[in-house]
Write a structure and sequence with these properties.
Elements: E1 4-5, H1 13-21, E2 24-26, E3 32-34, H2 39-49, E4 50-51, H3 61-71, H4 78-93, E5 98-106, E6 116-119, E7 122-126, H5 133-145, E8 158-166, H6 169-191, E9 215-220, E10 231-232, H7 247-262, H8 267-280, H9 286-301, H10 308-316, H11 322-341, H12 349-369, H13 377-388, H14 393-407
Antiparallel strand pairs: 1-4, 2-3, 5-8, 5-9, 6-7, 7-8, 9-10
């Protein structure tokens, strides 16, 4: 469980280490400093060159790199750096987990949401009123210190506390948002409108019906601030509080979906696609939202290679009129390519997002429904390819039976 360099010929970390080392200074007391301001950018380069084990998700990887650079020997080399960063990583792993609370809000009616949801490693509490006093004092003080950066607290949003265990504040934030966004993604799958024609400023509003509040604060178990900073939505746009018509059915569907995902051999890939789906449609820049949403679809429909023929084929296969839907998907593919390669934006991007959301939903629900059946995402896509060739299925089945009888002459079909 060590941090290692990626096994790729594209990366040559010793070149970056050498550049950083040329600006690294050690004083008489052993203190380390850097004379080149660009070291901050080089740290990000090193982060991309390193393979971090799953246990590192509790920590800020760039901070680990910094500590490796500070802790390495006098002559900074690639092997010395790896020894230093792993020494720091082992020290952090040996530390005890602490309990943290993330305080935030969400644009959902608080009157009928479940009081408590346990999802992933988080315990999420949806409050009917305000935050407990032990949290609100520290939160209000933090928000007052950053009042120039954040919007006014949205009206009617449901207040939320998320209890999480982690070895660091960074890990707590990451885990808490992953759990909350997973829950929110399931709600948005059922709550987002399928199509909406809008004019003027409405074109630049995020599509998600259920969005996070303006500011998020992290606290210790005692209620004190866990850090001196806050997390906030820089382009926050208040939205109408969403109320489901039948929350009991929605909650039942969410519990069923999460259970299915938990039992799936490739459940993490479904979770990743759900997170990419909901975070894409939080974006008020609809051109950017479309590209991010296409990435979510691609992560399930063509996960290894960006095979857009397969993306189109596999997404259209869920519909009876698959030939028509292939045409729609080809139109969306064409827009995606123009946006990426030619930098072309469109004032119709919001409509394109709604169109692509239709296929994202079908794709995600397909994998959730069949979560226990397929052994892998690859196997699920093989099945999907069979759907795409439904006109040839009878002949393929006939050939398979013939091949089976040939390979097993004593068998009775």
């Amino acid at each position: 469980m060590a941090i290692k360099w990626k096994n790729s010929q594209r990366f040559q970390p010793e070149l970056v280490i050498k550049k950083i080392g040329s600006s690294r200074n050690i004083d008489a007391s052993g203190g380390v400093s850097f004379s080149d301001f660009n070291v901050q950018a080089d740290v990000l380069v090193l982060c991309s060159m390193l393979n971090f084990p799953a246990a590192a998700e509790d920590f800020d990887t760039s901070a680990l790199v910094w500590r490796g650079l500070f802790g390495a020997g006098e002559n900074l080399t690639s092997p010395d750096f790896l020894v230093a960063i792993n020494k720091e990583f082992d020290r952090l792993l040996a530390s005890k987990e602490s309990i943290y609370y993330l305080l935030t809000s969400m644009s959902i009616d608080s009157s009928d949401v479940p009081r408590r949801v346990k999802i992933l490693d988080a315990d999420i509490n949806f409050l009917r009123t305000g935050f407990r006093r032990k949290f609100s004092l520290a939160r209000n003080q933090l928000l007052s210190e950053y009042r120039e950066q954040i919007s006014v607290a949205p009206h009617g949003y449901c207040n939320i506390t998320i209890k999480i265990k982690s070895k660091s504040a960074d890990g707590a934030i990451s885990k808490a948002f992953k759990a909350l966004d997973l829950q929110r993604s399931l709600w948005c799958l059922m709550g987002n409108v399928s199509m909406q024609y809008s004019f003027g400023g409405a074109q630049f509003k995020p599509i998600n019906a259920i969005r996070l509040g303006a500011a998020h604060t992290l606290h210790t178990e005692e209620g004190d601030r866990a850090t001196n900073g806050i997390w906030f939505e820089p382009e926050f746009k208040e939205t109408k509080v969403h109320k489901f018509k039948n929350m009991k059915v929605v909650n039942k569907n969410c519990r069923w979906a999460y259970k299915k995902i938990s039992q799936c051999s490739y459940g993490e890939k479904i979770i990743s696609a759900l997170l990419r789906y909901v975070r894409a449609l939080d974006d008020s820049d609809q051109n950017a939202a479309f590209v991010r949403l296409w990435g979510a679809v691609e992560s399930l429909a063509s996960p290894v290679y960006a095979d857009y023929d397969k993306v189109v084929q596999r997404c259209a296969a869920f519909f009876v009129d698959d030939k028509y839907h292939r045409q729609v998907l080809e139109h969306l593919r064409d827009y995606r390519n123009k946006n990426i390669h030619a930098g072309e934006d469109s004032d119709r991007a919001r409509l394109y997002c709604f169109q692509l959301q239709t296929y994202a939903r079908e794709l995600i629900w397909f994998h959730i429904h069949n979560a226990e059946y397929f052994h892998s995402l690859d196997e699920a896509n093989v099945y999907n390819d069979l759907l795409a060739g439904r006109d040839r299925l009878s002949r393929q089945l006939e050939l398979l039976r013939k091949a089976f009888r040939w390979a097993n002459p004593k068998s009775v079909s």
